[in-house]
Amino acid sequence: MTSLLEPNIDIALIPILETVADPEIPVLTVLDLGVIREAVEENGLVSIKLTPTYSGCPAMDVIGDDLKAAFAKNGMKAEVTLILSPAWSTDWMSEAGKRKMEAYGIAAPLEESADKAVLLGNAKLVKCTNCGSTNTHLVSQFGSTACKALFKCDDCQEPFDYFKCLK
Amino acid sequence: MKNENLYNYILGIADNSLILGQRLGELCGHGPNLETDIAMTNINLDLIGQARSYYQYAGKLTGQDKSEDDIAFLRLEREYRNVLLVEQPNTHFGYVMVRQFLFDMFHFMLMEKLQHSKDETLVAIANKGIKEVSYHKRFSSDWIKRLGDGTAESNAKIQEAINDLWRFTDEFFQLTEADKAMVEVGIGVDVSKLKEDYYKKVSEVLEEATLQTPENKYFTKGGKEGLHTEHMGYILAELQYMQRTFPNMTW
Ligand SMILES: [Zn+2]
After folding, report:
1. pTM (whole model) above 0.80
2. CA gap A9, B114 in Å, rounded
3. So what's the ipTM on this one?
4. Which of A 126-155 lie inside 8 A of B, CB atoms?
């Protein structure tokens, strides 16, 4: 088995992949999310290996269909396989993606130890997406989707989502 | 079926996730507040997602092109392998959290060990699942501490739930025929070896929550062999209604 820690993506396919967005965080493309582990073309057939963020993430079925539709629009047939191993990690999100996510109103994942500290309520490190203050607190470990936690800013009072670190 | 033991072994793990997921799903829109409501449905989603991965794998093993839906929806009660704990009803929020906590502590330990299975697919599911289960465990443990170490009323209600559900915990550590066969070939986890550590870790949380660890030695079992409590039929009636009324329906 080849390692998929480094995704194997044909450069020629990137412009098409970039048109497919996460249905729940539409500012992020599937490449920003890091869920495409392989995309290669052979004799007009594109085979894609997609890994879910969370096991039950309902966005995955939609992303699979959107990928097929995006390639169909470019006259190519795509085949999407869902793979579980290696398991997705927030480390695979692109830096550009993290910045876009913050501008969209979702705080980007901190690194592992900082993440643990904020989710246990031991540290104030999550930056409010509205005013930038780190004077924020955890409201709920689970937010609007499984991948997020709900925070609230104690300076501007804005409630916001934080994308949890997954490693 | 060539891999009947493996098939049954997988269902033994998957059915726990499916049935507990179904129980949590019943609470959608009924949580005590918005945050806990969302948390319980998120945990449900993780569990159903894990169950899907197991059933997809099990479906391939049957060699008859069985789908995940066929396995999830079209079995008889006696063919479900989940432990009795997960089918226990949603009474009050504290009860739901105790059921969750007692399961999460076991589930986490099982996933830890399953990561070292000789079966590549099970390893992949466990590697993914353990990250999710660690969040579940943290959520339910926090609630046990908060309610146990809360008011006199919350403490009494939680203690009562623990006393009531405790009798289902020993079943986690029973080995079925499929378990034994899979342990032998290095695929399955020998759950009987997790027992001591489980009770130790559970007691630590209970102590922190100012709760008593029950001392009863009477345990109920049967779920893993398909002998369920009276609650199971109601769960399946709801779970299977659509597929049985409109066979092969899709939307
Ligand atoms: Zn703010």
Report:
1. yes
2. 31
3. 0.81
4. 139-146, 150
